[in-house]
Amino acid sequence: MKLYYSPGACSLSPHIALRESGLPFELVRVDLKTKQTEDGRDYRSINPAGYVPLLELDDGHTLSEGPAILQYVADQAPAKHLAPPNGSFERYRLQQWLNFIATELHKNFSPLFRPDTTDEGKQAAVQMLGNRFEVVAAQLAQSPYLLGNELSVADIYLFVVLSWTRYAGIDLAQWPALKAFMERVGSREAVRAALQAEGLA
Question: What is the strand order of the sheet 62-64 is part of?
Fold first, then answer.
């Protein structure tokens, strides 16, 4: 398998999941400004959307969108328990969290990284994120991970999105449960290895 990624982007979540899974994979770095892969190919010929992540399977099939890739990776290594079994209620709970992270957290960071966002727009985005962080913090005050006592791919995605707070000037100390979660997940061997591989350690 090949994972097309850009350092620190949301592609870090499937990168961590692949390392947690123990599955063999290769990293291919993408320059999101030039849309070129590190070996000089036009990335849009591989993924017409032009963004990461993209997972390319050994048979040539490709899969885009982080939550879909995360579930695919988890299902290839069921013994690692990165996702509940398909068809179980807990699997739908996982999808609930993946959707929440994608739409309520991930997308609400976008205005903070766009140079054309007004100060008022950035303030509104920070307020919205703070409200959403309250929801996640309430869950993580009850259990170490979103689904209970075991790490899932939803936690990996959450870890990556929350890591952007340091670039956005948001102090997670306001939410002790989130700060503790970041320390807990950040101490994992697979997480440290992925961060080092992307030059983020």
Answer: 36-37, 26-31, 2-5, 54-56, 62-64
Could you give the CA distance from residue 134 to residue 27 in angstroms, rounded to a whole number?
34
CATH of the domain at 67: 3.40.30.10
Instruction: Encode the chain (201 residues) as per-residue pLDDT tens digits.
Output: 999 999 999 999 999 999 999 999 999 999 999 999 999 999 999 999 999 999 999 999 999 999 999 999 999 999 999 999 999 999 999 999 999 999 999 999 999 999 999 999 999 999 999 999 999 999 999 999 999 999 999 999 999 999 999 999 999 999 999 999 999 999 999 999 999 999 998
**Residue range(s) defining the domain that contains residue 130:** 89-188
